[in-house]
Write a structure and sequence with these properties.
Blueprint lengths: L10 H15 L1 H4 L7 E5 L1 H13 L10 E5 L11 H5 L8 H13 L5 H6 L5 H7 L27 H7 L14 H4 L4 E9 L3 H13 L4 E10 L14 H15 L2
Parallel strand pairs: 1-2, 2-3, 3-4
Protein name: Arylacetamide deacetylase-like 4
InterPro entries: AB_hydrolase_3 (IPR013094), AB_hydrolase_fold (IPR029058), GDXG_lipolytic_enzyme (IPR050300)
Organism: Phaethon lepturus (White-tailed tropicbird)
Length: 257
Amino acid sequence: YRLAPEHKYPAAYEDCLNATIHFMKNTEHYGVDPDNVIVCGDSAGGNLAAAVSQTLAGRSDLPRLRAQILIYPGLQALDFNLPSYQQNRGVPLLFRERAAFYVLQYLNGDALHMQEVLEGSHIPPDTKLKYRKWVSPDNIPEKFKVRGYKPHKPHEFKAEVFETVKRFCEPSLCPLLAEDAIIQQLPESFILTCEYDVLRDDGLLYKKRLEDNGVRVTWYHLEDGFHGIVNLFDCFVLSFPAGKRGLDRIVKFIKGL
């Protein structure tokens, strides 16, 4: 897919959606069973896989996706002060500031208001209240807060910043914000999270949303994992046992479908 900042949102999403639709319409050409198509992605790719799954969920003109696999996905840009963002703010390979930087680059092609986004002054109070049922530290199990968490008091709302980032409220950019009617139609899901990853809580919150809406979820949490670890599973000296475990669980999930 086309990359930001040269190609801003929704370019990457549209590329992935169009490619998936083309594939689903031509499964016979590719020698694929139309009832066994899975979308999968890691990190930003997990965001795109989730967004594509949501968009296709209500399509009656295409085969239904068999499953979605989301590997440490980034799923929201409303709150960069959830427990995992606080605890792992300086943990490689994805620092808290870089997470905000990347999503701003994707949306606007620049990171001019990164500090306001990190502080939480980029979203109106009424919008935060609307989405609090889905994006809230209250929905994170207490065991994930023991490494340290302080409730964040956001800075004063800045309307001029919101004008530049209001598309953060679009589910095709932030899939965690999709309505229940969409979530309920999603296919069976596999979510992998890592303890030492700023995006951990994005995955945990989405897991809860799926389960609350009756979607079957297989969740695997790497207690000793960090962001990007699965990608390093076969990188010789950079390979970690946890990455191999994560990949093995993904393979097991696929074989069990």
